[in-house]
Input
Amino acid sequence: MPNTADAVIIGGGVMGCSILYSLAERGVSGAVLLERDVLASGSTSRSQAILRMHYSNEVTTRLAWDSLPIFVNFHEIVGVSSGYTKTGYFVIVGPEDREAMEANVAMQRSVGVDASLVTAEDVREIAPMVETADGEAFAYEPDSGYADPYSVTTGYASAARERGARVLSGTPAIGVEIAADRVAAVLTEDGRIETPIAVVAAGPWSGPFLRSIGIEAPLRPIRHQVIMLRRPQDIVPDHPIIGDVVNDMSPRPDVGNLTLIGVGEDEYAEPDSFDQGVDMSLVEQTFEKLASRMPGMASALFRGGWSGLFTTTPDWHPILDRVEGIDGLYIAVGFSGHGFKLSPMIGAVMAELITEGQATSVDISSLGLRRFEEGRLLRSRYSMQVLA
Ligand SMILES: Cc1cc2nc3c(=O)[nH]c(=O)nc-3n(C[C@H](O)[C@H](O)[C@H](O)COP(=O)(O)OP(=O)(O)OC[C@H]3O[C@@H](n4cnc5c(N)ncnc54)[C@H](O)[C@@H]3O)c2cc1C
Output
């Protein structure tokens, strides 16, 4: 256990590790990351890991769009493959959401994203296994896909270590010592690490941790389920990812002829005691919806599944900020079920905020903690809040 560090990151999910790496890249090489369990053991390992650019707000589209080339070139940049797999991504909405989709795609295109509104005929041509209904509207992003959250997280950690950082697993932070309105140290059961900078990136545990040091952040962990099916290979050999707002589900293909479907109610869950399995009643409903969207999947086989936690904020956007009144304390929390795709740029903007006083590559000023009390919430244009 080191006695001092240039910075201490609390939490070894994809965010903590990306921030650690980005700090090391910017010359903050004596940083330490504390992980209570093992790297990626929180929400990150449960992630469906979909990379898409379709959002309702420019800041998240920019963070996702600038992250994509980093996922694609992860081996050259970070030293290991991210597992990026290009599948293409459709958003499908009902008539009531057509205008919202048009506005989202226009915003995406203004940022430079290769996204377009497409017709039912286009859908049939690109993805003949997908069924559409009258009145539905469609958007398509050819470059989107998925990556491997474990490889990305541990890849960042290894690359940061090579640049001088330290990663301590099995070492929970139990507090932050504040003296004269500045961070003085981060406390663990094994001792105290003196540091001028502490970054809280503790995923679903962030709310209680911040409260223990006197900071209230509106964070609500909710359970989200991932159902795993084996596709009938001769009927549905593959399919693109679908953000199916009509059916409130996101099927994505995986290796081994599997399909992972993200579904779930807005159900509060305790990070240390939630049900980590899937509900069979939801599996049954999802099967029906999936068979209506991809009829060939009617004979898919159920292969299990898991649940994880979305750490939601009231507007389903993260909080990326320095804490007012406590010099050296930073937070990167509340990723609300869509953070993985943003993670390379979250590391970059947090490292800029810490080392330069403000994020320069993407303007994150709309993602501050005070936006909630000031009523500056960012909203999804859809009922599916995760498309924030
Ligand atoms: C089921 C599911 C599906 C998802 N699908 C997608 C998707 O398709 N695309 C997408 O972009 N995003 C998706 N996400 C969201 C994405 O996975 C998360 O936004 C992201 O992983 C959050 O990373 P994190 O580092 O903030 O949190 P976490 O991964 O939870 O990491 C926090 C870490 O902090 C540690 N910790 C907690 N307290 C302490 C402490 N006191 N001291 C030290 N360590 C501590 C924890 O053990 C944990 O490892 C999904 C999430 C889930 C749950």
Q: What stands out?
A: The pocket of flavin-adenine dinucleotide is lined by residues 10-16, 34-37, 41-44, 46-50, 172-173, 201-205, 209, 224, 226, 262, 308-310, 335, 337-341 (CB under 6 Å). The chain has a mean pLDDT of 97. The longest helix spans residues 58-72. DSSP finds eleven helices and 20 strands in the chain.
